[in-house]
Amino acid sequence: MRIFISILTLLFLFKFNFAIAEVRDFPNKDCDITVGLLRTEKETYDHEWASSDKICEMLVSMGAHVILIDYNKLFSKAKEEALSEAKDDVIHVEQLESKKIKEVVKDFIKDSRINRILLPGNYYNLDSDPLPPTPNRQLVTKAIVQIVDENPNISLLAICGGLQGIMHAKGIEIISMKKLHKIQESKKSYHNDRRLNKLKIAPESRLSSMISRFAQPDEDGWFAIYFPDAHGEMINNSDKNIEKLQSLGYKVVGLSDDGVIEAIEDKHGNIHFQGHPESLILRSKRYYSENYKKREIATLITIAIINDFLYRKCETIISS
Questions:
Q1: DSSP letters of 227-243?
Q2: Higher pLDDT, 192 or 110
Q3: How far apart are the first and last CA of the chain?
Q4: pTM recorded for the entire structure
Q5: What is residue 31's three-state secondary structure?
Q6: pLDDT in tens, 72-111
Q7: Counting Cβ atoms within 10 Å, is residue 63 exposed (0-12), middle (13-18) or buried (19+)?
Q8: Distance between CA 81 and CA 95 in Å, rounded?
Q9: What is the Cα–Cα distance from 113 to 102, expressed in whole angstroms?
Q10: Cis peptide before 130 (omega within 30 of 0)
Q11: Non-local CB neighbours of 185 within 8 Å, separated by 6+ positions
C-alpha cells in the first residue's frame, strides 16, 4: 500500500511540475507581467500576512514580477495629502480622503507599471468578529476596484476576503455564514484545508472553458470542481443582493451545494473565488490521501486559472 501511495504521489508531482513548466515557458519575452499584491511591507498586526509570502513565491515561479501594494503606506500618504490640502480642517479632510486614496493608489500602480492585481484572503471580517483593527485595507481595496473598472487592461484576481472586499466596495451585502444558517458539523468539515469543497460551475462561463480541459460536464453542462475552503463570511445570496450584483455587471458562475456563491466573473472577464484554489499549489507537495483524484484535477485547474490571470492580456501589454 505504501509503495502504491508513493507511486501516486510521484505521478502527481510530475504532472504538477510539468504544468508549471508549461506556464514558465509560455510568456512572451516582451510581456512584462507585474503583479501588485495587496499586503503590507511590515506586519503590523496578527495574521496580517497569512500566506502571502508563499503567494509571492508562486507568482514569481510562474514568471511574474511582484510588487507589494502596501495599504498602510498608501493610506498614510493619502491622509497626509488630505490634511495638507484641507489645512487641518477635519471635516474637509474626511471629504478629501477617499479622493486622495484613489489618486495615490492610481499613481502607485502607474509608477510601478502594475498590470495585474491580486487581492488575497484576509483573516478579518467585514460583518462579524474578528473585525479589522483599521479601515486601511478596505479603503485601498475600494480604490483598486474603481481603478480597475476604469482600466480593463489591469487584470484582477480576488480570493476569499479579497472577493468580499470587492463586493463590499460595490455595495453588495456581505454576511456571516452563521446568519444564513446554523453550520452543522458536516459543513464545518470542509473548512479544514485537508478537505475539498464542491463547486458547481455554470456552463458557457470563462471559468467553465478552463475547466473543460480537465473535467467533463454533467448532462446540463455544469462542471463539478473541488477547492479548499475556509471562510466565515459570504456574499448574501438573497434575490435582492444577486439582482444588484448582476446589475453591476457580475455573473454568478460558481455555487456550492448549500447555495454559497463560490465564484463570480466581472464584465472585464476577471474571475474571483470565495474558496482558496491557490492553496492547492502552495501545498502541492503534501500528499492528501482523501479525494486524491479530485485534488489532482483541481490543482491543474488552479494552475490554468493563475496562468489565465497572468497571461491572457499579454497582447494588450505588449502593444501599450
A1: E----SEEE---HHHHH
A2: 110
A3: 55
A4: 0.85
A5: coil
A6: 999 999 999 888 887 767 677 777 888 899 999 999 999 9
A7: middle
A8: 12
A9: 16
A10: yes
A11: none
